[in-house]
């Protein structure tokens, strides 16, 4: 009986550990933090290339390549990208971002003379094996809601509506997410049928574990200690 209790306690602890370390599958509530993009400025003060971190790009000249001058750096908003959770549109207006502008996933950005931000109408879910479902990814810019189409994509190795996701499955370690889409012909923006690219990097943080779980673990460890003393 004593040994059975000990085995049950150990099994419960090991099972909890397995739940907390889901291999390469993301769970609802996990957070993809967003590492700020870094650009190299020219001697005149203009950004010449995004060299590290997160960014998005729009193929304005239509040559099938998102070049250095078509990329905009991104940095984390109030939450980062929370898996399994939809968000509302953030700041979107004419001119540069102003004090008080906010957005959940990424901080409001400045592109082609106006302010915009990103949001998801359908929660992002998935894994390294299947990729991430980005069908709900939307852009709002200068008061206009824009949606990179999930029916079309561009570039080798990309599927419509799916983001390529790289992560070793260990919480606290780095990830890379790349998503390609095309703004549809009827898009309300001036970027109709234009290629869109999103590149996010950061770390994967686990969904917060409720305090009750830690109390449960502490209790199991206490049971383990008592059982061990009695067995000895």
Radius of gyration: 22 Å
Spatial separation of the terminal alpha carbons: 14 Å
Kindly report the average pLDDT value: 84
Give the strand tally: 16
Helix content class: 10-25%
Q: What proportion strand? A: 25-35%
The main pleated sheet reads as:
9 strands, antiparallel
Poorly predicted segments: 4-23, 211-217
N-to-C SSE string, H for helix and E for strand: HEEEEEEEEEEEEEEEEH
Helices, by number, come to: 2
Shape: globular
Structural class category: alpha+beta
Describe the structure concisely.
This protein is α+β, with helices and mostly antiparallel strands. The protein has helices at residues 2-20, 211-231, and strands spanning 31-32, 38-41, 47-52, 55-58, 71-73, 81-82, 93-94, 109-111, 114-120, 126-127, 131-133, 137-141, 144-146, 162-167, 174-182, 195-205.
Describe it.
The protein has 232 residues and is α+β, with helices and mostly antiparallel strands. It has two helices and 16 strands. It has helices spanning 2-20, 211-231; strands spanning 31-32, 38-41, 47-52, 55-58, 71-73, 81-82, 93-94, 109-111, 114-120, 126-127, 131-133, 137-141, 144-146, 162-167, 174-182, 195-205. The strands form three sheets. Strands 1, 4, 5, 6, 10, 11, 14, 15 and 16 form a nine-stranded antiparallel sheet that branches. Strands 7, 8, 9, 12 and 13 form a five-stranded antiparallel sheet that branches. The chain is globular, with a radius of gyration of 22 Å. The two termini are 14 Å apart. Mean pLDDT is 84; it is low at 4-23 and 211-217.
């Amino acid at each position: 009986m004593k040994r059975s209790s000990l085995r049950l306690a150990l099994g419960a602890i090991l099972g909890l550990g397995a739940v907390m370390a889901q291999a390469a599958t993301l769970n609802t509530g996990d957070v993809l933090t967003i590492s700020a993009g870094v650009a190299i400025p020219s001697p005149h003060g203009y950004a010449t290339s995004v060299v590290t971190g997160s960014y998005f790009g729009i193929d304005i000249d239509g040559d099938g390549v998102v070049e250095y001058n078509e990329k905009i750096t991104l940095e984390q908003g109030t939450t980062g990208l929370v898996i399994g959770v939809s968000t509302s549109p953030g700041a979107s207006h004419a001119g540069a971002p102003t004090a008080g502008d906010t957005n959940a996933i990424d901080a409001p950005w400045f592109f082609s003379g106006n302010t915009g931000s990103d949001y998801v109408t359908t929660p992002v879910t998935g894994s390294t094996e299947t990729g991430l479902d980005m069908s709900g990814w939307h852009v709002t810019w200068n008061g206009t809601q824009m949606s990179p189409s999930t029916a079309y994509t561009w570039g080798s190795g990309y599927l419509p509506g799916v983001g390529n996701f790289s992560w070793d499955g260990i919480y606290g370690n780095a990830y890379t997410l790349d998503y390609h889409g095309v703004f549809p012909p009827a898009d309300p923006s001036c970027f109709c049928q234009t290629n869109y690219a999103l590149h996010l990097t950061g770390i994967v943080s686990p969904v917060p574990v409720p305090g009750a779980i830690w109390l449960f673990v502490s209790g199991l460890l206490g049971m383990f200690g008592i059982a061990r003393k009695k067995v000895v």
